[in-house]
Every structure is written in structure tokens, then in C-alpha cells.
Design brief:
heterotrimer; A alpha/beta (362); B alpha+beta (643); C alpha/beta (85); B: 643 residues; alpha+beta; Four Helix Bundle (Hemerythrin (Met), subunit A); Alpha-Beta Plaits; six-stranded mixed beta sheet; five-stranded mixed beta sheet; 19 helices; 22 strands; 42% helix; C: 85 residues; alpha/beta; 3 helices; 4 strands; 38% helix; disordered C terminus; EC 3.1.1.61 (chain A); Sig_transdc_resp-reg_receiver (chain A); hydrolase (chain A); EC 3.5.1.44 (chain A)
Chain lengths: 362, 643, 85
């Protein structure tokens, strides 16, 4: 049995989620109306997984999450409105230790309540099996509260942008990063370890809804020395910049007038998760010699990216899989290791350093 | 109706009312932050709920309303009074939509236009009269006029002009505008224009839709609309000035609500019958036993048992359905309290604010109705004893308005109601001295009584601490009456207080009268029911094992001394002495008590009804149940009897 | 592959989905003088847009009446600017 605690101030939402899980024979459900009740249920019901609404009266979801992570560490899945504000708060929650989030139904085609049900069950089931690492979470939370470690001064930034054209390498080199569940904090850890002058552009496929990648990019841009932008249209890629593919769509590399350009393309239904890591990596292989590519696959459910990155390794590219001990879900990187596609298997704290080494050496 | 939608209708009705009340309050007092927050939350929650269904027009109107309030909150500004009317128009419209959903389960076809119109009026800050139920609105749009000019339709054709402006992001939603246009029937003319100039090829984003389609069709309007069913926001349709004879829409009339009013007595009859059905089903156990005793009756016995099981399942469902019918939201009772609070505020001259939360929580109608009286006493007490006069509050640095909050929440199968005030709190010292003065406790006890236990004294019948007998609560209606009333509903009362900060009274009640497992016990020739949940075990002990301890009796069970109570003594029916005593070991909270009875009978499941009529005033009775043979059995409230 | 690039022409066949638009754009940018041959069952708006924006010379047939009557002329009329709103 999986004990699930549903925390939401709306009776309707509790009923909606409750009904979905009542249909699953292996779930035992309890509900709570607000943060205070949730904390009580944490000690009495001892859930294995929690869904947490953000906007609640009395104690809001983030405050409640903070208490849960300290007092009863347990996988928490945020229930998020797909809005700018909802995205910001969800990203904060992920930083604070929530393992994943599910979108609130919105009555539109893609977010229709009935169609969300199987997705929600799958995500919660996966979340329930995640072991929350308190120590790491705690460290992240401290860092998150302390703000960025290397604040970037505006003047330094201006210099970089004027030297942009020189910064573009004669032979394009690109770091490709794929991530899913648990990805946002992992991206933060890797990207903020890289200095402003990092010589390779970085393109990221982080599985996410469209409303989330903008806030994610802005957030990472504040936290990292590199500048971080979302790819919403054709964008020539340059060193010193991280390109986050817009959510619910795919991000691809192409050449425009010989210039390597990232574009956001409608999601290819052949692939299940978007932005698709497989599609990004294959488009890179088509446009850049493999030895000038680094493929990094980090935490996430499923297997997206494993096949293409394994291919990349076979063609002579360098590949890295996040190690099991640091990944929230060791699905995608695990699959890559299984396919023999990982040249390095390293824990999250060391990935940034490894990228630096590789970029200098190559 | 889908139960989720049914729940939505209930919740939405409450929320629209809440939002409307808050907006009206803001109209009077534009700087009221709490009302602004409350209105925002109501609309935010409504929007979230609407998202569960396919109700896009409501969603976008609520979204716009939420934005207006959200901006005011973020900027810490007052809500522009010009926005209040359009906001109220949105809320009224939402309410109409909800009622329509309650009636016919779908939104009217005009909802999209009405919603869009309301969004416009919100943006412009003035209420707009609702559009007639067509897509054109009043004036004939210019683009359509231009189209008809460029390609005049032949007379009487009643042609339709359409303008399809695909959203720039539409490819990402899977749209293929050209394919959609190709699917429009009866196109006699079309033109394709670009939204923006084409950029240089290197800058071109092939996945950004940049074409706009305009055309004239001779097909039926409905057939054209069907093509763009999923993207009504990207299409505009206008009918030629000389239209074809219009189809007269079928008169739908007022949506009739799919609910009927039923005399509660009839409902009660059904619930009672379900209870009896349970008893009748239980009778089949005896039947199965008889069958088993017959020669070769084992198979028959098994079949009877299986039939009993099936019947049990059906009865459970029936019982749940019957229980559900009686469930009503707390809102009605809580709203009455709001009126009452205003009244009391006037009488006492103490400005008062009553905050109510959890109106949507449902419970059995008897419980919801029965709550009014105890809540009334609690609130009167709070105003009378708790909330200080205005000047005293000022000295204490509290807001002039006394604050009373009533909040309900569901905790498992129970509801918890908290009534809190921010008054002076209860002084345990004063309680002790009053209790002492009235001889309710001894001086010794008064000296050693813990603070928490002092508060318990309030529940002793006849206790009242007000020096001036107040008009409101000083007339002998104390907390004892509250406890008794809540007890009758199967609930409990707890009180907590912080001197100078206020008092909180918590009521915990069942949401419905659910099935209880009851064991029959015999005492002096009579039968009573005892709730099984309290019975840990039944033991037979020699009479001499019971020893006198101070004023009572006790015996030792597995190294544990257990006090003994004789049911006969409690009920005033002393039993004859005998060699062996039958003892029920009861676990009541943390206490363990042995209850001596003459004998035990069958165990059964029953629907416990709260005591009615004469029994209402008898303490110690949890409820009644009807036996298979029609006899009424009283089920004992052991906690009350042994307290 | 629904887009085939040879020395002189770019050929559209089968069902050309939205994801082919970038490939068509790349092929046309590479060799703007190449003819585009339409022989597809379906052409997504995204590809039509590339053709309308770059206006290569086009041969072959549009897959449906609407695109034949109202879109092809936008590509063919090289001398006239596309109507703008």
C-alpha cells in the first residue's frame, strides 16, 4: 500500500485527486485542508508521498513544505497552477526539496481533468518510491536562502556582451543537458558551478510545461554567473550562455546561414516527454561533429535521452550520466549507463567541475 | 449529474456568494485589506475549481477578475471603485452559469461571448450590457464590410464572412490553419494576409504562425463554427446584412433545477427503514445457524450466509446513499450566525467582526441544524465575557473591533468547528474562586487544580462567572448547555484559553450518523446496547475477586487493577449477588473500566439515531435502535454514564 | 523523409508535418535558386509559410482546393508584394 496525503484547501480538488487514487487498489488516502492539518497528518498518518497545493489559507504550501522537509522528510509533489506565478512558487518548492510537481487541471484540451489522471497517478507512484535525502536537501535550502553565491555585477556583464562575437568559437562546441524529475535544482547545482567565461554554449532540455521554462530561465539567470535564456524562437547560440528549451515543445539545433541556432519546435508526438532530450541530441549530432559535443543526462523518470546520448558516445562525443546517489530519480541516467553510453558517471556536486575540465581540454 | 460537478455547484455557490459579499464590502470600504484578500481567494479557488471541467468561458472571466484583484494586492493599492461593478457583473454571471450547470449540466451556447464581453468590461473598467446571443455583437465589423465590398455576394445568399487569425503559437498546440480553412464548407472567396512582415530567412521562425485568413462562405453558420469549435477565440464570424431566414432556436426556457424538495420526515423514514433492513439482515445469521443444525444443512447454511453477505453489501450502499441525501453544507447555519453577531454587536455596543470559514463542509442535516444553538451560546458567551469594551481593547493595544472566527474543517469522518475570539481570555483563578464560593469544589481541590482542569469547571451545570447578569448569556445558559447539546449530536467540546489573548472552543462532531456495532447487554431483565468500539474484552471472574477499594470496587486483571462499575447500580436496578460476575472491559479514552452486567447478547450493526423526544433530556443515552422484533433498544453513552 | 533535396529541386511528398518546416527552410536557404516540387498529400501551414516568405519557384500541385486557389498565388506572384493588413 502507498499512503498518500492530499493537501488542498479546495474540497473539490481533494475530491478530484481522491477519486483518481481511490480507483488505484494500492493507494491509501488521507486528506488535509491546510498546512497545519497536513503537519498533524504527517505524524499520524505517516504518508509515503504527499501532494501539496501552494495557495492555502493559514499556512501556505511553501511554509508547510519547509516544515515537512525538516520534521518529516518525505517525497512531496506540488500541485501547481500553470501560470507565471505558479511556476515561480513551484520552482521555489523544488529548490526547497519537493521532488516533482503535477499541473492543476485547467479544462483545456491538454490539461483536461480526465486526461491528466493517468499522468498524475504515474508521477505520484514514482514520487512515492523516491528516497528523500535530507542532508542534501538541507544544504540546498540553505544555499537557496542565502541567494546566489557569485553575484554578477552589471559592468562585468556588459563586457561579455560586447565581446560576444569573439567569444563564438570558430568550431562550434556545445554542451547538451537533459533532465526531468528533480531537474531544476540539479541544473542550478551544475550551472552555478560554471564561471562566467565558460567557453561552451549550453543547451538544456528540461521536461516541463510551457509556462514553467520562462520562470526557470529567469530564476537560473539570477542564480548563475552564466546568462540563462529561454529558447522561444530561432536563437543563434553563443559561449557564456545557457539556452533552456521552451516547455511542452522540443528544442533543436539547426544551422541558419552556417550559424548554429537553437529553435523551439512543436513537440513531436513520437516522443513522450518534451522538450525531448533524444530529439535535441540527434539534431546536435546532425549539425555538429560528435567530438565537439558533450552530452549530460541528469535525474529523471523514464529513458528520454539515453538512446541518443549513447549514440553520441559511439560517434566520439563525451557523455556524462549523473550518478545514482545524487539523482532524485535514476531513470534516464540509469538507462544511459545500462546502454553503455556514459563515459563518466558522476555525482551532482562534481559535474560542474568535470564540465570545466572537459571544456578546457577539448 | 457527475458527483464532481455536483460538488462544484455547491462549492461555487458558496464562493460566488463570498466574493460578492467581499466586493460589496469593498465598495463601502475600499481600503479593507482583509476583504480584498478574501475576494481574491474566493475567485482564485473558483478559478481552480472551474479548471476541473470544460468551462473555458468561466475560466477566462475568472482569470481576468483574479488579475484585477491580484494587481491591487501586489501593489498594496485600493481596488479602483470603477472596477467593482464589472467585477460584480462577472460574479453574477458566474453564479448564473453555475445555476445553469446545476439545471442542465452545460453552459449556454452564448457563454463564450458573454464571458469575453465581461473580460472586456473588466479591462475597460466599466460594465458592458450583455451582448445579444450572436457572435457579431451590435455593429457590423469593418473587416466583414470590407470583405463583402471586395466580393459582393449575390442577393439573398445570406453569406457569412469569417476572419481566422491563428494565434502565433498555434502550431505548438497542434493546429494547422490551412488545413482548417480547407475544411470550411462553401467558401466562395478568400484572402490570406500576413500578421507581420516576413523577416530575413535567417531570422524566420517557421513555427510561428504569421498568416491571417479572411473569407466568405455560403454554408450554414453552425457548420462553419463547427470547424473552429476548439479555437473560438481565434475566429470571428459575421452574417451578411441580408441574412438567410434564420433558424429559430428551440425555446429552452428556464433551466429547471434537477433537485426536488422532500419533507424531511419522509427522508427520515427511509433512513430508519435502512436501519431496520440492517437488523433484518443480521437476523439471517440465526437462520444460517439453524440451517447448519439441520441434517445435511451445511450447504444451505453456506448459501444463506452468502446471500446475507450480498444483502449486506447492497444495504451498505443503500445506507450510504440515504446518508448522502441528508448531507447539507454548514453554510446555512453559519450564515445565520453572521446575522446574529451583527445583532449582538448592536445590543452590547461592542463592534464585532465575525469571520466564517468552511461553509462548504457537509454534515447530516440534523447535526447542521443542531449546531446552531450551541454555536449561538458560544458566540454570546464570547461577546459577553470574552470581548472587552472598546476602550479596554484600546488600552490592550487590540483593534477596536472584537474578532470572532468560526471555522469548520473536515477531519476524517468528523467535522471540527473552532470558535475563537480575541478577547480577554478566561482567568482560571477567577473560575476556581467562583467554584469554591458555590461549593462546587473543595478548597484543597481549588488549590491544586491545574489550569486546564479549571476550565473544565465551566461545564458544570449552573456555572456562570459574569458579575452583571447579562441580557445575553447570563440567564443560566452556560457551557453545560453547550456540552449537552453537542453531546446529543454525538460530539465533544473542548475549551482552551490564553489570558489576554482570547478563548477558543472546539467542537468535534460526526458528519453523519453512521453504522455502529453494538452489543446487547442484559441487566435486571432489561436489554441495553453498548457500542462495541468501547469494549476491549469480556471476562468472567469469581465474585470474590472483586475487592472494595476506598469508595469503589476493583479487581486485578493480568497484573492490572481495574476499577469496577455495576451497570445495575448506575441504572438504579441492583442485581442479585452471584458466584461469577460477567465484566466488560471498557476502554474509554485512556481510562480502563470494568462494567458488570448480568449477561451479554447478540452483536449487531445498526444505524444509531440521536435520541429524540423524551429521551433527548436523558443523559447517558447515545441513541436508539430498532430491534428485529420492533423493540426499541437504548444504546448507552458509557462515557457520560461513567464520568 | 518527405522532403527530398536533389541538385536542382526540393521535393515534397507524402504527409509533410509541421516538423519538416525547419528542414525545408534549411534546404531553401542553402540553395535559394532550387525549385520546389509539390507532390504531397498534405502540407502543413508551417511549410506553406516558408514558401510564402521565401517565394521560390514552385512546380506541381497543391493538395487541396483552398491552398491551390488562395495560397499558391501568394508564392507565385513574385513581382507583387503580399497583401498586408
Amino acid at each position: 500500500m502507498i499512503r498518500l496525503l492530499i493537501v488542498d484547501d479546495s474540497a473539490l480538488m481533494r475530491r478530484f485527486l481522491g477519486r483518481i487514487f481511490e480507483a488505484e487498489p494500492d493507494f491509501e488516502i488521507a486528506t488535509a485542508r491546510d498546512g497545519a492539518e497536513a503537519l498533524q497528518a504527517m505524524s499520524e498518518f505517516r504518508p509515503q508521498v504527499v501532494t501539496l497545493d501552494i495557495a492555502m489559507p493559514n499556512m501556505d504550501g511553501l511554509a508547510c513544505l519547509d516544515r515537512i522537509m525538516v520534521e518529516h522528510p518525505c517525497p512531496v509533489v506540488m500541485v501547481s497552477a500553470l501560470t507565471e506565478h505558479g511556476a515561480d512558487e513551484t520552482l521555489r518548492a523544488l529548490q526547497m526539496g519537493a521532488v516533482d510537481f503535477i499541473p492543476k487541471p485547467q479544462g483545456t484540451i491538454s490539461l483536461h481533468a480526465e486526461e491528466l489522471a493517468p499522468l498524475i497517478v504515474e508521477r505520484i507512484r514514482a514520487a512515492a518510491s523516491i528516497k528523500v535525502r535530507t542532508s542534501r536537501r538541507l544544504a540546498e535550502r540553505v544555499r537557496f536562502r542565502a541567494g546566489p553565491q557569485t553575484p554578477r555585477s552589471p559592468s562585468v556583464r556588459a563586457v561579455t556582451s560586447s565581446s560576444r562575437t569573439d567569444a563564438r568559437l570558430p568550431d562550434d562546441c556545445v554542451v547538451l543537458i537533459g533532465a526531468s524529475t528533480g531537474g531544476p535544482p540539479a541544473l542550478d547545482a551544475v550551472l552555478s558551478a560554471l564561471p562566467e567565461g565558460f567557453a561552451w554554449p549550453i543547451v538544456v532540455a528540461q521536461h516541463m510545461p510551457a509556462a514553467f521554462t520562462g520562470p526557470l530561465s529567469r530564476r537560473l539567470d539570477k542564480l548563475c554567473a552564466l546568462s540563462v535564456v529561454e529558447v522561444t524562437g530561432p536563437t543563434p547560440i553563443e559561449a557564456g550562455t545557457v539556452y533552456i528549451g521552451r516547455g511542452d515543445a522540443d528544442v533543436l539545433l539547426t544551422r541558419r546561414n552556417k550559424v548554429l541556432t537553437a529553435i523551439s519546435a512543436p513537440a513531436d508526438p513520437e516522443h513522450r516527454w518534451h522538450p525531448s532530450v533524444d530529439r535535441l541530441v540527434r539534431s546536435a549530432i546532425d549539425n555538429v561533429p560528435a567530438e565537439r559535443l558533450i552530452g549530460l543526462l541528469m535525474t529523471g523518470m523514464g529513458n528520454d535521452g539515453a538512446a541518443a546520448i549513447a549514440e553520441l558516445r559511439a560517434l566520439g562525443g563525451h557523455t556524462i550520466a549523473e550518478a545514482k546517489q545524487s539523482a532524485v530519480v535514476w531513470g534516464m541516467p540509469g538507462e544511459l549507463v545500462k546502454l553503455g553510453g556514459a563515459a563518466d558517471v558522476i555525482g551532482l556536486p562534481h559535474i560542474g567541475g568535470r564540465l570545466l575540465e572537459l571544456a578546457q581540454w577539448r | 449529474m457527475d458527483d464532481l460537478l455536483a460538488q462544484f455547484v455547491i462549492e461555487a455557490t458558496e464562493l460566488t456568494q463570498q466574493a460578492a459579499e467581499d466586493l460589496l464590502a469593498l465598495d463601502q470600504e475600499p481600503g479593507n485589506r482583509a476583504k480584498l484578500d478574501s475576494a481574491f481567494r474566493a475567485i482564485h479557488t473558483l478559478k481552480g475549481s472551474v479548471g476541473l471541467f470544460d468551462l473555458a468561458p468561466m475560466q477566462s472571466a475568472l482569470h481576468a477578475a483574479e488579475d484585477v484583484l491580484g494587481v491591487a494586492i501586489k501593489d498594496d493599492a485600493e481596488l479602483d471603485p470603477a472596477r467593482i461593478d464589472p467585477m460584480l457583473a462577472v460574479i453574477e454571471w458566474i453564479d448564473r452559469c453555475v445555476q445553469q450547470l446545476r439545471g442542465v449540466g452545460v453552459l449556454p451556447s452564448t457563454a463564450a461571448d458573454e464571458g469575453a464581453n465581461l473580460v472586456l468590461s473588466l479591462a475597460s473598467g466599466r460594465a458592458v450590457a450583455p451582448l445579444p446571443p450572436t457572435m457579431t455583437g451590435g455593429a457590423f465589423p469593418q473587416w466583414a464590410a470590407r470583405l463583402f465590398e471586395a466580393h459582393p455576394p449575390s442577393r439573398g445568399e445570406g453569406a457569412i464572412a469569417l476572419r481566422y487569425a491563428p494565434a502565433p503559437e498555434c502550431f505548438f498546440n497542434g493546429d494547422d490553419p490551412v488545413a482548417l480553412m480547407a475544411a470550411v464548407p462553401g467558401v466562395i472567396y478568400a484572402q490570406v494576409v500576413t500578421r507581420e512582415d516576413w523577416p530575413a530567412p535567417t531570422k524566420l521562425d517557421p513555427f510561428r504562425s504569421n498568416l491571417i485568413f479572411e473569407g466568405i462562405s455560403t454554408a450554414k453558420r453552425a457548420d462553419i463554427e463547427a470547424v473552429f469549435r476548439l479555437i473560438p477565440d481565434q475566429i470571428a464570424i459575421a452574417q451578411d446584412a441580408a441574412p438567410a431566414p434564420r433558424e429559430i432556436p428551440a425555446e429552452s426556457g428556464e433551466p429547471t433545477a434537477r433537485t426536488i424538495r422532500v419533507d424531511l420526515a419522509r427522508m427520515d423514514d427511509i433512513v430508519a427503514l435502512v436501519g431496520e433492513l440492517v437488523t433484518a439482515k443480521n437476523g439471517m445469521s440465526a437462520l444460517a445457524a439453524q440451517a447448519e443444525a439441520l441434517e445435511g444443512g451445511l450447504a444451505l447454511s453456506r448459501n444463506v450466509a452468502a446471500a446475507q453477505q450480498d444483502l449486506g453489501r447492497l444495504i451498505n450502499q443503500l445506507q450510504r446513499a440515504a446518508t448522502d441525501v441528508r448531507m447539507v453544507p454548514l453554510g446555512g447555519t453559519l450564515r445565520r450566525l453572521a446575522r446574529l453577531a451583527r445583532e449582538i454587536s448592536g445590543q452590547t455596543g461592542k463592534p464585532l467582526q465575525l469571520d466564517v470559514a468552511g461553509s462548504e463542509i457537509e454534515a447530516d442535516k440534523t447535526i447542521v441544524d443542531g449546531l446552531y444553538e450551541p454555536l449561538l451560546h458560544i458566540i454570546r458567551n464570547a461577546v459577553d465575557h470574552g470581548i472587552e469594551p472598546e476602550d479596554e481593547r484600546q488600552v490592550a493595544g487590540k483593534p477596536a473591533k472584537g474578532m470572532i472566527s468560526v471555522s469548520a474543517r473536515q477531519v476524517g469522518h468528523r467535522i471540527e468547528l473552532q470558535v475563537g475570539d480575541d478577547g480577554r481570555g478566561i482567568d482560571p483563578e477567577r473560575i476556581r474562586s467562583v467554584a469554591l464560593a458555590r461549593g462546587m469544589i473543595s478548597a484543597d481541590a481549588a488549590a491544586t487544580l491545574a489550569e486546564k482542569d479549571s476550565l473544565e469547571l465551566l461545564f458544570i451545570p449552573g456555572f456562570s462567572t459574569s458579575d452583571a447578569v447579562s441580557d445575553l448569556s447570563g440567564r443560566g445558559v452556560g457551557m453545560d448547555a453547550v456540552r449537552a447539546a453537542v453531546h446529543r449530536l454525538g460530539g465533544k467540546v473542548a475549551i482552551s484559553s490564553t489570558a489576554g489573548k482570547g478563548t477558543t472552543i472546539t467542537l468535534s462532531l460526526p458528519t453523519s450518523f453512521t453504522m455502529s456495532r453494538v452489543m446487547l447487554v442484559h441487566i435486571a431483565g432489561e436489554q441495553y446496547g453498548v457500542p462495541m468500539q468501547a469494549i476491549a474484552e469480556t471476562v468472567k471472574i469469581p465474585a470474590h475477586a472483586i475487592v472494595r477499594v476506598r469508595s469503589g470496587e476493583a479487581f486485578v486483571l493480568r497484573d492490572r487493577t481495574i476499577p469496577i462499575v455495576r451497570l445495575g447500580d448506575i441504572l438504579g436496578r441492583a442485581a442479585a449477588a452471584r458466584l461469577d460476575e460477567l465484566v466488560l472491559i471498557l476502554e474509554l479514552g485512556t481510562a480502563v473500566v470494568g462494567l458488570v452486567v448480568d449477561g451479554v447478547g447478540e452483536r449487531f450493526e445498526t444505524l444509531l439515531r440521536p435520541p429524540a423526544g423524551l429521551l433527548k433530556s436523558v443523559s447517558g443515552v447515545l441513541g436508539t435502535t430498532v430491534q428485529g422484533d420492533g423493540r426499541i433498544v437504548m444504546v448507552l453513552d458509557l462515557e457520560a454514564l461513567l464520568a | 523523409m518527405t522532403i527530398t533535396v536533389t541538385d536542382h529541386e526540393i521535393r515534397l511528398t507524402g504527409r509533410c508535418g509541421v516538423d519538416e518546416a525547419e528542414a525545408l527552410l534549411a534546404a531553401l536557404s542553402e540553395s535559394p535558386q532550387n525549385r520546389v516540387v509539390l507532390a504531397a498529400e498534405r502540407i502543413h501551414t508551417a511549410l506553406w509559410q516558408v514558401l510564402v516568405a521565401l517565394r521560390p519557384s514552385v512546380l506541381g500541385e497543391a493538395p487541396d482546393r483552398f491552398s491551390a486557389e488562395y495560397i499558391l498565388p501568394l508564392i507565385a506572384r513574385k513581382d507583387e508584394p503580399v497583401v498586408k493588413t
